Amino acid sequence: QVGDRTVRALARPTLRHVRVCGWGVTDGGVAVLAQHGAGLQHLDLSGTQVTDASLSVVATKCPNLHHLVVGGRLVTVGVTETVVTLRNVSDVSVSLVARHCADLQHLDLSGTQVTDVGLSLVAHCCRRLRVLLL
């Protein structure tokens, strides 16, 4: 399973497309990735332990994002599938994403705690948005 150590080792400004899935990746790993992510255009953090803290760093350090996935991961328990919610992703970081990543075309916020407040900023700031998953 991928963890923070691996993400830190791979973080570099030449990366354009990153998909990091797994509960082993925390705010620390995501923040290091974002610090080197000025060129990132596609970032998939589904199934990680991302919170407002690291998503705020992503927003300010990765302004060229076109595709951002922070939705909770799908877990199968028996025959039932459930989306694990990300209670620590809220309007705070989503508002920063909207303000700093205006070129977003795809945004997945499924399982987060975003409300109409954050979504109204997304609608106002992200004019190129084509896909929004809640």
Automatic annotation (TrEMBL):
Any Pfam family matching the protein: LRR_6
GO cellular component: cytoplasm
InterPro entries: F-box_LRR-repeat, Leu-rich_rpt, LRR_dom_sf
Protein name: Uncharacterized protein
Organism the protein comes from: Neobodo designis (Flagellated protozoan)
